[in-house]
Amino acid sequence: MKVPVTWLRELTGLPADVSTEVLATRLTAYDLKLEEIIGAGVSGPLVVGRVLALEAEPQKNGKTINWCRVDVGSHNDLSVPDAPGQDVPSRGIVCGAHNFGVGDLVVVSLPGTYLAALGFEIGSRKTYGHVSDGMICSTRELSLPDDATTADGIVVLEPGSAEPGDDAITLLGLDEEVLDLEVNPDRAYALSMRGVGRDTALAFGLSFSDPAQLVDDPATRGEGYPVRVDDAGACPVFTARVVTGFDPSRPSPPWMVRRLEQAGMRSISLAVDVSNYVMLELGQPNHAYDRAKLDGPITVRRAAEGESLTTLDDVERTLDPADLLICDDSGPIGLAGVMGGASTEIDASTTDIVIEAAHFDPTTVFRTGRRHRLTSEAGKRNERGVDPELAAVASRRVAELLVEHGGGAIDDGLTVVGEAPGRRPVTISASLPARVSGVDIASGDVVVALEGNGCEVETDGFTITATPPSWRFDLVDAYDLVEEALRVVGYDQVPSVLPTAPGGRGLTRSQELRRRVGYVLAGAGLTEVKTFPFAGPADLDRLGVPVEDARRRQVLLENPLSAQEPGLTTTLLIGVLRALALNVGRGHEDVAISEVGRVFTPRPGAPEAPIYGVDRRPTPAELDALDAALPEQPFHAAWALAGQRERRGWAGPGRDATWADAIAVGRRLADALHVSITVEQAQHAPFHPGRCAAFWLHGPAGDGGPGATGSRVIGHAGELHPDVVRAHGLPERAVAGEIDLDVLLAAAPEVGPKPDFSAYPVVKEDLALVVADDVPAARVQQALEQANALVESVRLFDVYTGEQVGQNRRSLAFSLRLRARDRTLSETEISAARADLVAAAEAAGATLRT
Predict the structure, then answer these.
(1) What is the pLDDT of residues 8-38, one digit of tens each?
(2) N or C: which end of the chain has fewer CB within 10 A?
(3) Would you tell me the crossing angle of helices 659-672 and 509-523 to the nearest 10 degrees?
(4) pTM as predicted
């Protein structure tokens, strides 16, 4: 919510000595968090000028520039000899825009003016053969909203609105400040100047004059424009008034335009501007219909199958039966609470206006906006909840402003269908706020705080009964009142008390091992990232995941944050690659990141998750039903690298990250957990089919290779597929990996292996074996490791292909270490072990190279 400070001061009478910074700090303490103080971004001599002469000069580059003489009053300069018609004091300025002419009042930034939108100070410089002594400013350069006539063009002021030399900063309100406040969903009342003004008055102890306080409404109820509401649950209150004789050619007053612009809204026309102004002022969305375009009475109903509506943004929308509509006899004319229809739009011929102000069910409005992917300022307020007693007041305010600035008259009738729902009182013990907060809050202070928020309060000394105001939907139980009282007293008064840590506890085994995993990833040079666990079909498409892949089966959310990400992620690579692309896009050339988190997979046969209210604790049976509906949520670890793994420098030229680096991370994790895994070539999205490895975890006995009984694939790593790299905007040859941590942790021994050193000599043997291209080196290595009890380690140190080994064959050279724990090996034992090694290799499909 953007809050113009001058408007807020006008509403509250805030003393002039209270700075904007102090105001922002106090509102933040009142739960209206400051996002930004928006300043003018303009300083220096910005003045009004009148164009005295203009010469169009075509240039060789095809452009036509205007060489102008501009009268800037007391800032004129006689030292520009070649200005056209230099017979009166003025300044010569070059301008490339063409939406102004001789006699127009324009805004001129003289040398020394700083414009934040451009990021530099204006100076006097030679351009296009002239010395331009300043600049004639556009809306973009002044950070002003564009309108239909000056879109990125020169600002042309109304004739007579100023004189040459006047200060344009003050004239345009560029010296005013605006608070950009973050409004939490439970404080919907603060999406209005009325709401922020009330909290400001409360924060500074000022009396508040409610702009919604209507002293007298002479309208006769029941005699306005005819309205019928078919769904009272979705629309409890609907009001309508009529203004006749309106002049659509009248302009919006400058003060209203400026306030709309400061609040982030564009001025369109008087009728639309008044509607938006009242919405910002009171928080009540409203809509104006051209009465001549209405066909019969207004009806509020649900959509029928097959109906459609063209909304004000000129988009034809196919309606859903759950959509709440505003209709007349011709059919739908608006999406209730979200956006009006184009068929009844106010235009330049509108003279009679029907004003709608209604209270809609927030959930209905929210779901309609989400279905149609349609957001609007009105929808943002209606979906959070609007004061149900405000509709008639807001429609009256709109009507009065229309008549005041556009002429005409307000009809005597007022249509009101329905009534605001009643408010339920809440009773608390007078001592509850002090007991809950730890702050000595007297019952009198509680009463003052609640009354300041608009509550009707009664107390007998022991209890306090408060009836919340119509705009505070969030005050529903005793602890809401406690929070409200504490907000006024000050959260900073709450003492800091650390709870005593319970004894005899510590990290669980799983937590200890996950912490070890974090140390290993950090030790590998990877920076930890945390990403959102949401994904959609498009994310899996970018990874190249096949249609039949199990990762396509997602757990869908009832109310996702984004329609493009409707489910929970099944792979951490989605978020990790997003983070990698973000860092690369920010100019980081060498990036290595990792994430440890949960993925979510549907549980076979799981029931649909029930949705319970929040007014009570679920029963044990309800908790069991929720647990049964939960998906599988295993921990995974994922990593990604791009750029150089070893950076260039004085020690060498550096080395780019390769598929081997991605695989090495998985090996390091397994080694740190004392788990034996085997690496085998594989094909798995999103990896390059020729540079991808699978991590195999073997059965409980540790015997058998990939595919043996009890073995399973627990992850993959390698170089990303070129299509995946392009889809994410990553550097070529980026690499990544992902592994199932839950399976890896479960396989880790309870205690690390006991050191078992042998003091006897080691025997080193090398074997060169020839295998077919399709025989994995890992399979041969594992066969050698299990060939004889004397084998201490096996390491592949060379791979050779060429004429000497034959076509479609390769040579694998292994370095072996043989050792006994209790003796020095004899020649006989060494020969027998070597024979076992050769036999095991042959069984794995290898032959001894001669």
Answers:
(1) 999 998 998 899 899 999 999 888 988 888 8
(2) C
(3) 150
(4) 0.63
